[in-house]
Amino acid sequence: EAQVTQNPRYLITVTGKKLTVTCSQNMNHEYMSWYRQDPGLGLRQIYYSMNVEVTDKGDVPEGYKVSRKEKRNFPLILESPSPNQTSLYFCASSSRTDATNEKLFFGSGTQLSVL
Amino acid sequence: SQQGEEDPQALSIQEGENATMNCSYKTSINNLQWYRQNSGRGLVHLILIRSNEREKHSGRLRVTLDTSKKSSSLLITASRAADTASYFCATLLTPNTGGFKTIFGAGTRLFVKA
What we know:
The complex is a heterodimer of chains A (115) and B (114).
Chain A: E1 4-7, E2 10-13, E3 19-25, E4 31-38, E5 42-51, E6 54-57, E7 65-66, E8 76-78, E9 87-94, E10 105-106, E11 110-114
Parallel strand pairs in A: 2-11
Antiparallel strand pairs in A: 1-3, 3-8, 4-5, 4-9, 5-6, 7-8, 9-10, 9-11
Chain B: E1 5-7, E2 10-14, E3 19-24, E4 31-37, E5 43-50, E6 55-58, E7 61-66, E8 71-76, E9 85-93, E10 101-104, E11 108-113
Parallel strand pairs in B: 2-11
Antiparallel strand pairs in B: 1-3, 3-8, 4-5, 4-9, 6-7, 7-8, 9-10, 9-11
């Protein structure tokens, strides 16, 4: 089954403790992206990747890191989480680098709480 | 500010009625997409309309696009309780740095009463 898999689904942590949210897709998609969703603000893009070893900042990259060493995986790293990073996070992928006509496939989300 | 902004923010209707949601955007687009999100879950793609199209249908969904007004509407006909969800429009931007970014609006929360 074609899917984007995020883990974990829920995560509670404390300020400053490094964490990684994993994202994997089995559709051989070139494009992958991370979003955060906060009430009243819709989805805001954190980072995206056009292909292996190619990443770029979205609208809210501060406090986050990503890597794209393999095509299928695109982990989101919070080196020193802070309470303002408490949010619902989504990973998404799409099939073509020039995805002007391609839809995004989303993972089920990771609810992160930073205390 | 958001590229896409939906209107209304929330909509409550009876089962069987039609639901109309609107989206406005600011810059030129390649396409505009609508997504659906059930409470806290991942978004699911509904329909894509290209910039050279004016109307598109998919089942009970009808999308229109007016590039002169930079606006789009999503119509759900004969709504069902299962249509209760949040609906987002999304537009594609191509930054000077290359690649592309999909920008989402804040969404419309639709509640369909049985």
